[in-house]
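Before relying on records like the one below, remember that each one covers exactly one chain. Contacts with other chains, cofactors or solvent are not represented anywhere in the record.
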Amino acid sequence: MPTMKKRTSVHALTVLALLASSAYLTVELRSEERDSAPGVQTVKDRPVGAGDIDKDSGAQRWERLNNPARTVLRGDQGQILATFTDKARTATLRGPSRTFAEPANTAVRVVTEDWVRLMPQAWRQGAEKEAWFKTWFKEASTTKEDDLFATAFQYAAGAPVKKDAKGLAYAGDANFGPVNPDLTKNRGTPLLEQSDFFHYLGIPYTFRDGTTKQPEPTRAKAIDCSGFVRMVFGYRARYPLASDDNKGDGLPRTANGMARSHLGADILPLSGPAPWYERPKNIDVLQPGDLLFFKMDHHTGARLDHVALYLGPDTEGHKTFISSRKEVNGPTIGDKGGVSRIDGSGFYAQLLRSAKRL
């Protein structure tokens, strides 16, 4: 198995190609919220049934951790090289550093060595010894293909169009939704919700339960918050998709459906009384690639109504996410309508309610 050190020496052109997918948005910074964010916190964890790492052995080592139950691969200095969480297909691997930036929309950047990919099966204790995982990991630890983060930024403002062999444009600058022709019928929101990935693509899509849905021309190149997640995890990374909430065993259509589904591992469980619930008291257990769920609108009753992809710390040390939002008309890590951070006292930080690792 190739070492993780070899993987970190991937040619610089690979990194540059990934950076080319980053986008640039235009808006004034919300400095008052940025200044209110506290310093980054440190996660302290204790191994389950494992002793100290022998830092002089030069060997890698598998280790079990809890809260949540997971397996990590440690390097020769005890550093975590990869994380695999029970019940989840999302794996976080250490790789070449990349920078994701939107300088016209926010002064901060996300510089990360975390690469997030989907495994073919959900993780369980001892899976590192199984043939399916060994085959997958050999490829995943060396591939130059886009991970979930690189894919997500292929839909932000200014992202170049990408087409498949048949000429279908499957990536490029995405809108949130069409302009609302009658604000009074949609609670005054200027852009309509309910734009799924197949609307963006402009093609009919048949789901696993046999349901075929047709795209609406007015929603071409548009994906709302959950449509964005379904595009990145589902259509692009091939995570199974349900035709709607509570239909089939795939990723549900809405943020509420995703948050309350049995899929993956609940990292921050929903708690507190409906309809507003409670903000999680400790968010240190999050890792890059987790889905974040928010309660933002009193018109949606007890439903959670926004979903985002957690990226990890930004260059100022704060916990940052990307999501498709009305304020900037598409996917963003920017500040318009609220800083894209979940620590501190900003808009989204106050309205975070739960998190899941698919």
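Residues 28 and 334 are 9 Å apart (CA to CA).
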